[in-house]
Specification:
The complex is a heterodimer of chains A (347) and B (463). By secondary structure, chain A is mainly α. Chain A has a single domain, classed as Up-down Bundle (Formate dehydrogenase/DMSO reductase fold), CATH 1.20.1630.10. Chain A is built from twelve helices and four strands; from the N terminus they run H-H-H-H-H-H-H-E-E-H-H-H-H-E-E-H. Chain A has helices spanning 3-30, 32-35, 39-49, 53-70, 72-81, 83-102, 109-139, 163-187, 191-222, 226-247, 251-273, 297-324, and strands at residues 143-145, 151-153, 276-278, 288-289. In chain B, helix 2 (45-79) packs antiparallel against helix 14 (412-443) and helix 8 packs across helix 11. A two-stranded antiparallel ribbon of chain B has the order 1-2. Chain B has a two-stranded antiparallel ribbon with strand order 3-6. A two-stranded antiparallel ribbon of chain B has the order 4-5. Chain B has one domain. Chain B is mainly alpha-helical and 463 residues long. Classes of the chains: A mainly alpha (347), B mainly alpha (463). At the A-B interface, helix 3, helix 4, helix 5, helix 6 and helix 12 of A face helix 2, helix 3, strand 2 and helix 14 of B.
Chain lengths: 347, 463
């Protein structure tokens, strides 16, 4: 296997990690006000995310950094091309992180309500836009060779909002929301757990419908690979298994299957792409692939050593965090939920 | 304004803003770890209270560092795609290593630390904060190594066909003296910043007579941190200056507004130059000091701006190779000045604290403590503004100009729009962060007592 293929796989692995991990924490964020009504309930949800959301987000930063290192042309063309959607994602991630950290500092209901709204919206926007972005990449976008000899994105912002991409966006949106509901059901107790379980069933069906449309469209129009059809079938089976497990009250299995589904979505998209990283909708000669977008073999080799040594280590200690915080949290465990961390009465 | 100018402003605004929070995070992580270690070793309650209190302030600041850091990882691709194509083969590697090695470490173990007070043994919990703090240090190293490549490219070759620089020796990039010196200069300045922050807060508590048993040891720790850090910053700053003189003589000349090449060059205390930056109108200087700073010899020759301009024109072709002299000149002086004032305050206060004494009855003490947290931040900002702006017109010195690095497909309107939104958002967040910080300081350290209350208190740090 060439180093270029190895790095294509490693980037896929990073996105798999990101979709699984931040996927559910986007979901929890989106459902914050739907699943949790009281202050105790909301703080329960946020406490399930507390120790892990930042570590989950690092998967994105590393995916970005690794793309820069291994496929600089991809990094440059993609991020300058998908400028506004990426900007909206960044703004959302900024607001989201701050909201988590600051919303419970004061007990004031106006203060909290504002941050809660911010969490819902800033979880919603990236969930939609990542799907839009990946669907566009798989579909192919207008790429042309510039006068300087580089392959640049020449479509505008609205070019990215085509029906296929929007279906892709809605698919990741509902997928993450359901994945988040499964997480809540697994990690909490009491009324939030019940609500999450109920909601997961409904959201899950919507996801299934959207996913079938999206994957069918992908297989018919934008990929001629049998493997994409097979993987799409696997996604549908994994997703139905998640819904069935959830219906039977097997929350652990439900979450595991929805994590598998999130992973398979990334794998399917990357399989459809390979060996391209950004196909051009104008002409194949303007497409970026794992060779013309890549760094030198030396850089890829260096980065391979780094990844081989460090990735297992990261998986071990990040896995350990999940083990440390494995206990369910219930709203009754939250003391003085109405009182802010920085309110004097708390002391 | 062109998209180039706007992209430069955007990079400047987002990066300077991000770097307000970074040094506080790096230094505070270690100081909080130190306080917790003191509690672990002695079992004294005041150290536990100090750990939790300053831990809370540390986290309010950390949140801002994290979220503003996300932008940094992506804006090279967004606004500087040509730069990214040119250096990606080299520059991307330290960035990716930083993420994999450092970001995961700090975010994961900080999460464990915040929420793990009652879930882990004391020892493991203490290890968590040390690991998180070490993560910030590793992160600093790799990003500074990436920056060092821009100051002084090494370990590369130019591939004309693909129009880019390519990595030939990763160890050269990671271990060149520019990177090591910059790390050795930046880290103690981060400690100086955190020391000033802790001392300022603790000094205020002393004056207000609040939780003095908690505040006093922290004040002392903060003051000592400032003084020791300043000494190290001075020594490594001197080292950095010599490396700079050798590798980027124009930067040193600009820092000194030294227009003509001189032996026994003076260190200028004050300079007014002509508007076009070609000659000084009025200058006061200390003879020989610049020569000494640059080379270690008071008689040595230091190259001047005008001679270097002529020399660069010969090497790189016609063009303007002068950075904006007043920014370099004043940036350099304000960096040193603000750091020195903070250190002076620290020495005065520490002197008053000897043999159980206290500085609180001194009139200068409260104003000094209230400015302490801000002086090092200003010093850091001016230092980086100096070192980045005085490398101009280059983005990678001698290889690639800033003007060539901007994304050709991104319109000026897009850059302007994103810049306005980033600036407004950052402004709002600054106000919120500042208010929360003040509020947290006013509330002060919590009481800690019985075992049972422990599980309650874990949630005071929780969400």
């Amino acid at each position: 296997m060439s180093l270029n293929t190895t790095w294509f796989l490693l980037i896929a692995v990073l996105w798999v990690g990101y979709f699984i991990l931040e996927g559910f924490d986007f979901g929890v964020g989106m459902l914050l006000k739907t699943v949790a009504k009281t202050q105790a309930e909301r703080r329960t949800l946020l406490t399930t995310l507390g120790p892990i959301w930042d570590g989950n987000e690092v998967w994105l930063l590393v995916a970005g950094g690794a793309t820069f290192a291994a496929f600089p042309e991809w990094y440059a063309t993609l991020f300058s091309g998908f400028y506004l959607p990426l900007f909206l994602i960044l703004i959302s991630l900024i607001i989201r992180g701050v909201s988590f950290e600051y919303r419970s500092k004061h007990g004031d209901s106006k203060w909290r309500n504002r941050w809660d709204n911010a969490i819902v919206i800033s979880s919603f926007v990236p969930s939609l836009l990542w799907g839009v972005a990946f669907a566009n990449i798989a579909r192919g976008v207008p790429l042309e060779r510039s006068s300087q000899g580089f392959i640049e994105y020449t479509g505008g912002f609205f070019n990215l909002l085509n029906p296929f991409a929007l279906i892709g966006g809605l698919t990741t949106l509902t997928l993450f929301a359901t994945h988040g509901a499964f997480f809540i059901a697994l990690k909490t107790d009491g009324v939030v757990r019940e609500r999450a379980n109920k909601l997961a069933g409904k959201l899950g069906l919507a996801t299934a419908l959207l996913a079938v449309i999206f994957l069918g469209w992908l297989s018919l129009s934008y990929s001629d690979k049998t493997s994409v059809v097979v993987l799409s079938a696997v996604i549908v089976v994994a997703w139905l298994s998640a819904l069935e497990a959830s219906r039977r009250g097997r929350e652990g299995w439900a979450f595991l299957f929805s994590a598998t589904t999130s992973a398979m979505v990334v794998i399917t998209l990357f399989t459809a792409l390979y060996p391209y990283v950004m196909p051009s909708s104008i002409s194949p000669e303007f497409s970026l692939d794992i060779f013309n977008a890549s760094s030198t073999p030396y850089t890829l080799k260096v980065m391979t050593y780094v990844a081989v040594v460090l990735t297992p280590l990261v998986l071990i200690y990040q896995g350990w965090t999940y083990w440390v915080f494995r206990k369910r949290i219930s709203p009754s465990q939250i003391h003085n939920p109405e009182v802010g961390v920085l309110d004097k009465i708390n002391i | 304004m062109s998209s180039l100018d706007l992209a430069r402003w955007q990079f400047g605004i987002t990066t300077v803003y991000h770097f307000i929070f970074v040094p506080i995070t790096i230094g505070s992580g270690f100081l909080v770890a130190g306080l917790q270690t003191a509690w672990y070793r002695t079992g004294k309650e005041k150290y536990l209270r100090a750990t939790k209190f300053f831990g809370k302030l540390f986290l309010i600041n950390f949140a801002m560092g994290v979220v503003t850091g996300i932008v940094q990882e992506f804006q090279f691709g967004m606004n500087w795609s040509s730069y990214s194509r040119f250096v990606g083969d080299i520059f991307g590697a330290p960035l990716a290593i930083e993420g994999l090695l450092a970001f995961f470490l700090e975010s994961t173990f900080l999460g464990i630390w915040i929420f793990g007070w009652d879930r882990l043994s004391k020892k493991m919990h203490l290890a968590a904060i040390w690991l998180a703090a070490s993560g910030t240090l590793l992160s600093a190293y790799f990003i500074l190594a990436a920056n060092a490549f821009m100051q002084h490219p090494v370990g590369y070759t130019i591939n004309e066909e693909r129009g880019r620089a390519e990595l030939t020796d990763i160890m050269a990039v990671l271990t060149q003296n520019t990177a090591v010196a910059s790390f050795a200069h930046t880290i103690p300045s981060a400690f100086l910043t955190a020391g000033g922050f802790f001392a300022g807060v603790a000094g205020w508590m002393m004056v207000k007579n609040r939780d003095v048993e908690v505040a006093r040891p922290v004040l002392k720790m903060g003051l000592v941190t400032v003084i020791v850090s300043f000494l190290i910053v001075g020594v490594t700053g001197d080292w950095t200056a010599r490396i700079m003189t050798e590798q980027q003589p124009m930067k040193m000349a600009a820092a000194e507004a030294l227009y003509e090449t001189k032996s026994s060059a003076p260190f200028s205390l004050f300079t007014l130059g002509t508007l076009d930056g070609s000659r000084p109108i009025f200058q006061i200087g200390l003879p020989g000091l610049l020569s000494f700073m640059s080379t270690g010899d008071t008689n040595a020759t230091v190259e001047g701006i005008n001679d270097l301009q002529a020399q660069y024109e010969k090497t790189y072709g016609p063009g303007n190779y002068k950075p904006v002299i007043p920014i370099a000149y004043w940036g350099f002086r304000l960096m040193i000045g603000f750091g020195a004032i903070a250190t002076l305050f620290a020495m005065m206060a520490l002197y008053r604290m000897r043999r159980g004494g206290t500085p609180v009855d001194k009139k200068w003490f409260l104003p000094a403590m209230l400015t302490m947290p801000f002086l090092p931040i200003l010093a850091n900002s001016f230092g980086w503004i100096f070192t980045e702006s005085a490398r101009q017109p280059w983005v990678v010195f001698g290889l690639f100009k800033t003007a060539d690095g901007v994304s050709p497909t991104v319109s000026a309107g897009s850059v302007l729009f994103t810049m306005i939104v980033f600036t407004l958002l950052y402004g709002v967040l600054a106000v919120i962060e500042f208010k929360l910080m003040i509020r947290a300081i006013q509330v002060g350290p919590e009481k800690v007592s019985t075992e049972k209350a422990d599980s309650d208190r874990t949630l005071t740090m929780a969400y």
